[in-house]
UniProtKB/TrEMBL annotation:
Family, similarity comment: Belongs to the SIMIBI class G3E GTPase family. ZNG1 subfamily.
UniProt keyword list: Chaperone, GTP-binding, Hydrolase, Nucleotide-binding, Zinc
UniProt gene name: LOC110536296
Name recorded for this polypeptide: COBW domain containing
A UniProt-annotated Pfam family: CobW_C
Length: 370
């Protein structure tokens, strides 16, 4: 018996509490991922946050993760204008493996040495898939990590974004700039000094056509109201924002660009069983089992929803990033009105009617059982 337990520990080191953990539960540190195409203004935003936020101890991960050649990366911690640096040794260029093994450990080491910090900002490279980075922190939070994913912020270059978004990609590949917008909880259209009103409107409409959920700020030199950037709580439900109300405002979008990513949303009344819902989500995200009218598989990049699980008094939040998803009970209790499931999908080849039909099939299956 003991042996079995030890084996399990070996397989899942994350489950073992870290000795001397300086944080008590509930004192988790938020991580904001700052992404955006090459030269959009990510570093400018980081520097702005560091100069504006005097009362927070902020750790910054400034690395160009994912670029295979570099072996050493630094982790910089800023406090009151002073910068501490810790070198990380990354065994390979894969962010998912190396940061999980090294990055989180380095963050914990740093906290042991320098005392804990309040916030982590992570700048990805211009071409990175922020979904890979996001899922790392997201999953670890599930395992009781000291760190949780607060939000994905995508900085957009007002002048060059349309050019990046319309760049033709080889068949099957998603445009990186569009993916970064699809995954964002917040987008910052930066460098508005370089475009006229008409160009800005066009870009704003295009961003909205890709991601019907995202909040859009506009600025120069990445100077934005930081209360709109930090502590978003995009992946939990502690922001006090009523997700039902938020999702109600989302509209299915019409693609502005050829073969582009778009948002579809629908609502279906009734309650469903968690098991059947899992089957639906896994068919969609993992099996890519649903096809649009042209026979192309629907690819979901981001997923958000409120669902009603039969027998549960509280609303359940659904979150997905690429192939990862999570169902989380919210504190919100269903009211007197009939329960309505509201779902928002952001991705490619999405067909609202077909998706809704598949979802209704799921709901009806449960109805049969009741
Ligand atoms: N005209 C103009 N230039 C800006 C603005 N914001 C940033 N820049 C400039 O744009 C350039 C790129 O800014 P960065 O903050 O380094 O961009 P980045 O996204 O970190 O770039 P990479 O890390 O190389 O992908 C810098 O020269 C900035 O000074 C703006 O609002 N207007
Ligand atoms: Zn940068």
């Amino acid at each position: 018996m003991d042996e079995v337990l030890m084996d399990e520990d070996d397989d899942c080191p994350e489950l073992v509490p870290i000795a001397g953990n300086p944080l008590s539960p509930g004192e988790q540190i938020p991580v904001t991922i700052i992404t955006g195409y090459l030269g959009a203004g990510k570093t400018t935003l980081l520097n702005y946050i560091l100069t504006e936020q005097h009362n927070k101890r902020i750790a910054v991960i400034l690395n160009e993760f994912g670029e295979g050649s570099a072996l050493e990366k630094s982790l910089a911690v800023s406090q009151a204008g002073e910068l501490y640096e810790e070198w990380l040794e990354l065994r390979n260029g894969c962010l998912c493996c190396s940061v999980k093994d090294n990055g989180l450990k380095a963050i914990e080491n740093l906290m042991q040495k320098k005392g804990k910090f309040d916030y982590i900002l992570l700048e990805t490279t211009g071409l990175a898939d922020p979904g890979a980075v996001a899922s790392m922190f997201w999953v670890d939070a599930e395992l009781g990590s000291d760190i949780y994913l607060d939000g994905i912020v995508t900085v957009i270059d007002a002048k060059y974004a349309m050019q990046h978004l319309t760049e033709e990609k080889p068949e099957g590949l998603v445009n990186e700039a569009a993916r970064q917008i699809a995954l964002a909880d917040l987008t910052i259209i930066n460098k508005t000094d370089l475009v006229n009103g008409e160009e800005l409107n066009h870009l704003r409409d295009t961003v909205r056509s890709i991601n019907g959920l995202v909040k859009i700020l506009e600025c120069q030199k990445s100077r934005v109201d930081l209360s709109q950037v930090l502590d978003l709580h995009s992946f939990d439900n502690k922001d006090g924002v009523n997700l039902v109300e938020k999702l109600q405002l989302v509209k299915t979008t019409r693609p502005h660009l050829d073969k582009s990513i778009l948002t579809v949303t629908f609502e279906v009344s009734g309650s469903l069983s968690e098991d059947v819902l899992n089957v639906f989500i896994q068919d969609l995200l993992w099996e890519k089992a649903f096809k649009n009218q042209a026979g192309l598989p629907m690819i979901v990049i981001r997923l958000k929803g409120i669902v009603s699980i039969a027998g549960k008094a509280k609303q359940v939040m659904l979150q997905g990033v690429h192939e990862l998803y999570e169902l989380d009970e919210t504190p919100q209790v269903w009211g007197e009105e009939p329960r309505v499931n509201r779902l928002v999908f952001i991705g490619r080849n999405l067909d609202r009617e077909i998706l809704q039909e598949q979802f209704i099939l799921t709901v009806l299956k449960v109805g049969d059982r009741n």
